[in-house]
Amino acid sequence: MSMFTPLWTYYLVRFRASAETDRDRGEVSATTVVLAAALIALAIGVGVIITTRVQNKANSINLG
């Protein structure tokens, strides 16, 4: 059990240091927000295109 103590101590120190540096980073810039919105819109568009093509292909299958 004693070999895990230094490991957990290391992780605790790294976590606290990471939390400390994250506090100093500030707000999200407008560029990041616009880029995220553009990527989300692109993903939705690709999803719509794929869904439409799959539905069209399924409707064109002759089952009778």
Compact overview of the structure:
This protein has 2 helices and no strands.
Question: Which structural traits does this protein have?
Answer:
single chain, 64 residues, elongated, mainly alpha
Distance linking N and C termini: 69 Å
Q: In total, how many beta strands?
A: 0
Overall geometric form: elongated
- Uncertain residue segments: none
* Radius of gyration, in angstroms, nearest whole number: 25 Å
Order of helices and strands: HH
- Overall tally of domains: 1
Largest sheet: none
Give me the number of helical elements. 2
Provide the residue-averaged pLDDT.
Answer: 84
Structural class, by secondary structure, is mainly alpha
Helix content: over 70%
Strand-residue fraction?
Answer: under 5%
